[in-house]
Sequence to fold (388 residues):
Amino acid sequence: MYKIKCLNPISQYGLNLLTDKYEITDDINEAAGVLVRSAAMHDMELPEGLEAVARAGAGVNNIPLEKCAEKGIVVFNTPGANANGVKELVVAGLFLGARDIAGGISWVKENASDPAIGKTMEKAKKAFAGNEIMGKTLGVAGLGAIGIRVANVAIELGMKVIGYDPYINVQSALHLSTHVQVCDNLEDMVSKCDYVSIHVPLLDSTKGMINKDVMDKMKDGVVILNFARDLLVNDDDLEAAIESGKVKRYITDFPNAKTANMKNVVAMPHLGASTEESEDNCAMMAVREMMDYLENGNIKNSVNYPNLNAGPLKNGVRICIFNSNVPNMIGQFAGVLAANNINISSMGNVSKGNLAYTLIDTDQDIDDAIIEKLMAIPEVFKVRVIRK
Fold:
């Protein structure tokens, strides 16, 4: 029986996937798995029996990834599960950037008590006039699960689209409309665009990527959409660009204390994935990933360990070994098993940075003494055994 702790309310569509091998618990100290959305885990004590943390969403800044890695706790996220919900909000952002819809709505509220509002609005509405997006050029920085959907739907809306992503993979490229022009330089891309939409992860290398140098290359009156993370944009440079008229509007789903008080900023309170469908999809993906790992040792969509799929464990024993990525580890594992007359029926090994993960299948059971010998190998910090 695997016990699961939910740190946040998790969609019932996801929880319904749990079989009779699972039980929801209120006590994290007895949990083998944790399901989480936004709950902060950095200051939590992680119990020794915890095997996996599954985040029902993409961002994992609320989870102590290094501490989990050191303990052999696999952290999963759900890339792409909420992509359609975010895409649809970006489309709304395009219209909010093209036409001063937010300003017009505010005017109506401010003048709601005017008995002649039906007439006065005809004079006032010219202050909120805008442009149509058909025929305009959209630049999409980051062609992942969300960026590709944004690019493709913009093509359907009659826009010209230029994409930029130096790390685009083959699978993503196959889903990208052939009408999207791909550019290999961010500054070249933004110089041609009326709208720029950001869809890259927040990394040390991407923090502040939209800065003065990049904004100086943009067209005058550009609209910037940020539905990724606020720190991707340099706030001071953005404020100066808005003041000068270089940036017409900034549409964001990640306001902060500075941008929330800037003029010509339309900010939403992180609503991108706040749809019933996105929450259901994220929960179902998170639960499936966690179940496959707990029952079979397979890793997919982990943010701290490499992916490895050995298929379902139908019978016998599967040994899961976590270790530092150094030479001659596999030879030492095989040596321990051979010395104890344990035959290896299949093996898989992958690495990610300074970490490595190995799955070994055998038809013979192994006892605690063999596990202790594997654990005694330098650079091995966790051994987990799954039996069928």
Observations:
- The two ends are 13 Å apart (CA to CA).
- The chain has a mean pLDDT of 96.
- The CA atoms of residues 253 and 270 lie 5 Å apart.
